[in-house]
Amino acid sequence: MAERTAQLRVIKLGGSLLDSPDFPRRTRECLARQSTACNVLISRSGPFADVVRAADQLHALGEEVSHKLCIQLLSVTAELTKHLLPEASGPLPPDGIEPTFETRLVLLDVSKLVELDAAKSIRPLPASWNVTTDSIAARAAALLRADELVMFKSTLPQRKIPFRELAETGFVDAHFPICAKSLSNVRFVNLRDADFSEHQYVTPTPKR
């Protein structure tokens, strides 16, 4: 990745948001309220992954094959998102992202991110149904050394609870607490809320 001259923010777009006719407008409005940064977008596979899940249950494809197919499907939702948000560049591999003030909106090539994760992480993301774009976004934030991870959701829990409890309730995937524990700034934003309500999790930087 090129030398950074701006903040970098990884944003995960919830799959159910693509079902909303207001998705492009609401996304732009919410992004306009954020501080200036290079926004790296990851779009969920949504109902496409449900097709693979059903096939796995019916034909016993196995988690490794199913995981690979779901990763491939993310290229489809990335292209769909690009048609809805044509101002976004990409999809780009991690090393093709240049966080500058001119680079405002970038779609991430998730397949290349997964390859980077397998090559550089001590414990790469497992090929499991416990891993969705929640965990992929968290791992992307770690590998890209993002200043924050923002999860656009269609709802929020009534109160702010630990990542482990979020996973237990199904709000995030089961592997997310593991991937997110190294991140210093994570926000969940309700994109359907008029005021974009959010829950923020900040881990203070240790003093040296």
Label the CATH architecture.
3-Layer(aba) Sandwich
CATH topology category name: Carbamate kinase
Strand content: 15-25%
Radius of gyration over alpha carbons?
16 Å
Overall mean confidence score, pLDDT = 90
Count of helical regions: 7
Write up what this structure looks like.
By secondary structure, this protein is α/β, with parallel strands linked by helices. The chain has a single domain (8-202), classed as Acetylglutamate kinase-like (Carbamate kinase). The chain has helices spanning 23-32, 47-59, 63-84, 110-120, 133-143, 163-168, 176-180; strands at 8-13, 38-43, 89-92, 105-108, 148-153, 185-190, 198-202. Strands 3-4-2-1-5-6-7 form a seven-stranded mixed beta sheet. Strand 1, helix 1 (23-32) and strand 2 (38-43) form a beta-alpha-beta unit. The longest helix has 22 residues, at 63-84.
Question: Features of this protein?
Answer:
7-stranded mixed beta sheet, alpha/beta, single chain, Carbamate kinase, 7 helices, 208 residues
What is this structure's SSE topology?
Blueprint: E1 8-13, H1 23-32, E2 38-43, H2 47-59, H3 63-84, E3 89-92, E4 105-108, H4 110-120, H5 133-143, E5 148-153, H6 163-168, H7 176-180, E6 185-190, E7 198-202
Helix pairs in contact: 2-3, 4-5
Q: Brief description of this entry?
A:
This protein is α/β, with parallel strands linked by helices and 208 residues long. The chain has one domain: Carbamate kinase.
